[in-house]
Amino acid sequence: MSTTLGTVVASLLDTALDRTLLLGYSRPGLVIRSRLPGWPGDVDVAGKVVAVTGATAGIGAAAAEDLSRRGADVVVVGRSPEKVATVADRLGARGEVCDVSSLASVRALVDRWHGPLDVLVHNAGVMPPSRQLTAEGIELAFATNVLGPWLLTRELAPHLADGGRVVNVSSGGMYGQRLNRDLMADLLEGNYEPLVAYARTKRAEVVLTQMWADRLADKGIVVHAMHPGWALTPGIASSLPRFSTLLGPLLRSPAEGADTIVYLAGGHAPGQRTGLFWHDRRPRPTHLFGLNKETPEARDDLWHLCEELSG
Ligand SMILES: NC(=O)c1ccc[n+]([C@@H]2O[C@H](COP(=O)([O-])OP(=O)(O)OC[C@H]3O[C@@H](n4cnc5c(N)ncnc54)[C@H](OP(=O)(O)O)[C@@H]3O)[C@@H](O)[C@H]2O)c1
Predict the structure, then answer these.
(1) Does any ligand 1 atom lie closer than 6 A to the CB of residue 169?
(2) Measuring from atom 8 of ligand 1, which residue has the nearest CA?
(3) Does domain 45-310 bear CATH number 3.40.50.620?
(4) Which of 38, 53, 93, 113 could pair with 77 in a Cys bridge, judged by C-beta atoms 3.0 to 4.6 Å apart?
(5) Separation of alpha carbons 179 and 10, rounded Å
């Protein structure tokens, strides 16, 4: 097969995997894709300062480890002082304690931040089993997955070097949700269903990725979102036990889930574009089959909500 034909077939197969979800998001998806012609293999993070939130378990811990092995100066960010110390010691990395669901904790991290920053990875994420409020009175999934990262991005952006990158770890679950004012209000004040609430916050992350990308472009900072695929982590095992048992061996390892985070931190192509949603090292649509598109007003509402709630 000629190289061009091989690349076209590889691209078609890659897209087919993406649309079938089960194959694309599980382990076979990554295994097959990484063997196809044109798989972008380049990652250079040597000497880069990369902060990873939620780096004490699951995909975040695996990303921190991979980045560290590739020579990055990793900053392990987590909410548990003991876990942060353990992981940071193991990697020989800097540790920072921060509960990203708490605006006060995010501000404290920003106040004591020192030194340069090349890549900020917002990986910490939760799917609370029931509606819970933070000490600041904000619904926990929104506070952790959306508001804390939004504030951290805003406050750490001045520290990000020209050529800096922000990576938001979202989820393919966002495809099923459309951002609109009522849905966000429902998330913050109304009925609570864990998977729906989670998916709405993950949609919000993708929308905010695009909005940050526009706002930070003139500073030379790129902003991307990604979906790790389905990986067997402590979070998945506890929040979706039946899913974990059912898919079992088909699930990715945390390191496989972290693969595209590492690529977005140090791959060449992500540095050339901004505001995209990635999975398995390739940009993917943000809306499947044109469904669930939000209006510009809904996007602005979300931005204003973050401004308002964060003071
Ligand atoms: N696993 C998957 O299949 C999958 C699929 C789609 C998207 N994702 C996304 O990938 C990311 C990582 O997921 P995971 O499966 O690795 O989750 P996980 O196993 O639950 O690990 C989550 C990490 O985030 C930390 N964390 C949680 N809340 C925090 C907070 N308020 N402040 C600081 N750190 C906090 C946890 O700290 P502790 O160690 O203290 O608990 C832990 O280190 C999440 O954003 C998730 O939505 C995962």
Answers:
(1) yes
(2) 171
(3) no
(4) 53
(5) 33
Q: Is 234 in the pocket of ligand 1 (CB under 6 A)?
A: yes
Ligand 1 binding pocket includes 144 (Cβ within 6 Å): yes
Lowest mean pLDDT among 20-29, 70-79, 262-271, 294-303: 20-29
pLDDT at residue 22, rounded to an integer: 78
pLDDT score recorded for residue 301: 93
Domain residue ranges of the chain, discontinuous segments joined by + = 1-39, 45-310
The mean pLDDT of 150-155, rounded to a whole number, is: 98
Among 123, 145, 174, 246, residue to substitute to test ligand 1 (most atoms within 8 Å of Cβ) = 123
**96 Cα–ligand 1 center, Å:** 16
* pTM > 0.85: yes or no: yes
